[in-house]
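To the team - magnesium ion complex, inputs and output below.
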Amino acid sequence: MNTQITPATETVMANALRVLAMDAVQAANSGHPGMPMGMADAATALFNRFLRVDPSCPDWPDRDRFILSAGHGSMLLYAIHHLLGHADMGMEELRRFRQLGARTAGHPEYGHAAGIEVTTGPLGQGIATAVGMALAERMQAARFPGLSDHYTYVIAGDGCLMEGISHEAIDMAGHLKLGRLVVLWDDNRITIDGATDLSTSTDQGARFAASGWHVQAVDGHDPDAVAAAIEAARQDPRPSMIACRTVIGHGAPNKQGSHDVHGAPLGAEEITAARVQLNWPHAPFEIPDTVYAAWAAVAARGHEARAAWEARLATHPHRAEFLSAQAGETAALGPAITAYKQRLSKEAPKLATRKASEMALEVVNEALPNTVGGSADLTGSNLTRTRGMVAVRPGDYAGRYVHFGIREHGMAAALNGIALHGGFRPYGGTFLAFADYSRPAIRLSALMGVPVTHVMTHDSIGLGEDGPTHQPVEHLASLRAMPNLTVIRPCDAVETAEAWEIAMTATRTPTLLALSRQNLPTFRTRHLPENMTARGAYVLREPGRGRDVTLIGTGSEVEIAMAAAELLAGAGLAVAVVSAPSFELFAQRPAAERAEVLGDAPRVGVEAAVRQGWDLLLRDRDAFVGMTGFGASAPAPALYEHFGITPAAVAEAARALL
Ligand SMILES: Cc1ncc(C[n+]2csc(CCOP(=O)(O)OP(=O)(O)O)c2C)c(N)n1
Ligand SMILES: [Mg+2]
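Output:
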């Protein structure tokens, strides 16, 4: 940097963001110029006066987090990163906005470029993920005093605040008193269809205040006012919402203030007019050195903050534990799980896999000090809280168990935020039927490759009397359809332990455990040190000689397949039973192994769910015993009889194939 250059004023710094956004959208002939142009002043005040980030080390643990919840305004983030000097965000990337292979995807994508803290775009996800980040910050501060002292800043739009998930997030953050969470609301009163009064009359300030937030309202184009509000927000012990009254597309003289600037290029004529209005004589993608100098000063301040933090870390008494948690160290887990499996195989307990999950979690939480658990108000059903797990409370974050409340979607997003923050390995529970309530956040964890664990109990009609509202039927199929999500439905306590080992050692994949309410015998009575569940499917019962038929089950229906095998064996048939806890893991195995496990003989699949997705395991000529519609309210054994998911039915289906 040429130190002779007098850095530009904040207004000019903000105008650089505006111009880059409108020029990149124009070049791409697609994108959203309105939000970046409207929030450029507030974002500049935030970065210039507060945000501590270091582009030379974008992932240092104590950096402030900046979440662009209004992900359609991605050019705001890319322009900031470019001006801050991020090595991977050169001007070429801005020129290639929205093109194949560019880091500048339509919406910010975690992992595509440094400093993108979370993938956003589905409105409301960012603010809800930020709640998890702000919680993780406090939890880390409680464990490592002096090493965690950062803020989580969010820019959210009208859309983020209209989405239902925002209610769960705001409620949770207010209750937990996450005072280092600061939300700048882009109060431009415009969405795609037009003015917000077309569709909402909510007093957002009153809504946030009712949930225990500190609320302010400012002119979003007055940097001093925005800065003063941020300063007050930082001092207040409550989470803060600052309503920044802005004009969407500010700087485009003929289009600003209208929904026309939300998501379409301004057009050459309007861009020329905006350049005049903003007093910006420079060509597209040309930034004066004075502007770079001003933004470089922001980066330099962050660099200093990081150096000071590194010095604190170097002499911190818990440096090793901090780094181990940060690295997601899991070396202690393998031996602990193996020893536990050995005990299980010997004792062969008859347990619901949700109970087996609790027992496995005892081992996991003992071996891994950085796990954080929770449930959406179903702790006693999901069995997610192990002995000695202290609850996180408002203002006291030393615990490791979170009462997420009846907020499945907010919980799933917060789990993403805790994992993205770093230092923790989070899991959370609910009923499998309510996975749909969490689904958009599960999808984002899969898209981002964030290893959170979803503990989903009551995984079939086997839950019984609560009836079809609570009985998942299509959920396994729909979750298996999601790329990069490992769904595991273990059949007994040993597979459940193996499933937890897989979940807790995953690095780029979320895991969903589907667990039974009803008791199941232990089938894996011969101890195998290998994690067989990691194979996805394997032969549980050998046929003894050349197979006549292969029965394939998952979870609680492995018991049914095993009983059917005995019936058929009694009639002189050679029957193999394959346990298939995870279709995704099986699909990743070599073709030869898959062929050997499945064999050439006729196959019958059995699962108390719809058949969709079973084509990985079954051919057209094979049979399936399962569900074709919704369940019913009755004791579980009566339901299995009623829906014909029984050993006799499976044996009959097999005989019909022979
Ligand atoms: C969950 C979800 N629903 C719908 C959309 C499509 N969408 C993108 S931006 C937008 C309007 C958002 O309005 P606002 O947050 O006020 O943004 P502004 O127009 O002010 O930039 C909509 C409906 C989306 N991205 N995510
Ligand atoms: Mg808006």
